[in-house]
Amino acid sequence: MTIQIASHRLTRRAVLTGGALTVSFALAGARTKGLAQGAAAGPRSLDPKELDSFLAVNGDGTVTLYAGKVDLGQGLRIALRQIAGEELGIGVDLIKLVEGDTALTPDQGRTSGSNGIQRGGMQIRQAAATARAALVDLAAQRLNMKADDLVADGGEVRRKGGGAGVRFADLIGGRNFNLKLDPKAPLKAPATYTLVGKPLARPDVPAKCTGNFIYMQDFSVPGMLHARVIRPPAIGATLASVDESSINNLSGAKVVRVKDFLAVVADDEWTAIRATRVLRAQWSEWTGLPEQDKLVATLRTDPGITDEVLINRGQPGAPGGDGAKTLTASYFWPMQSHGSIGPSCAVADVNAERAIVWTASQGIHGNQNTFARFLALPRDKVRLIYLDGAGCYGMNGHEDAAADAALPVARRWAHFREVRLWPWSMRRLQCARGRPSNPVLLTNNC
Length: 446
Known about the structure:
This protein is of the alpha+beta class.
């Protein structure tokens, strides 16, 4: 599926200089090409055990990577190209990357905890190494030579001593490998690396620096409505009544109510914002938040508290022996919000047969199951596509905004509401340490 996106806006520079600059953007480059290629190729393998799920050699000699991990700003878009290019023996300029699309990319788990490279990058590395070995075997058959006498380099397989080679595209361009991913495929020695470890330019930075990058908040689809959810003034409050006539003077604005869920939709974002300000709604009162001076004690007795043992070695409580000293400590820090500089946003196009959701979620594949469940659709009829959103250290409201978008709308949270109502997290860290040969217990209470 290829969608042409047009967005017009004033730049800060134009406003400051007193002029008006209208810029037209089109969603182009690797993402559009990746979507178009995926649609043309028909259903793709998404099995993480299959080589074709991660990598394809195209007819023009380029290579397309399909990564379930996404670039949240940590540089994955160049790093994965470097990893694959190193094993395949090609430059990063010949590698296209399709990231974070449940219809095109394998499930590599959430992008968090620095596992984009640690886990996702290693799967890409294994896929590239498996592909390289397969390409060398194909060339050996064609050239009637031993595979050990050939090397993959520069997008072709040639004799190790030099001479003309056979292009990757001529060996398998446009066709599937039909091979299992080999976790034991021979890897190149780090001493021979020419790409990995080099400070190559990140492909997304120029557009981000010049204001041309399409963020989640810039994205739109034809016929899209804009929505704002109206949250209760207190956690746990229920919706008593709504006066829909209070927004009658705002053309195109409508009320959406599902039990205690309340939202407004409009043809443009500013009308939706104005509707949230004037819509009259009555909410019940609610109390129940813990007393702040008793917060620690309340949390420790809460039935929903979770314990995560980070390190557990030896036998806690065992005698330490002569001279052994036991150290214990407990640390508590209050509510923390992964507050972003911009509000969370998502776009959803949902009908009775299928759903497409554009989101800045860090875990689109896991959310595919959740969305299929609450939309009452088969899992394969729900497609989530990643777009860059407001950055965060941890999670913010990206996934909640996507779930709120139940119509073909752009769903953007009001920033002050997101910071106020987003479920914040608290931590208590408890440490106990004996002598080096005795137990070490590190518990993280969430």
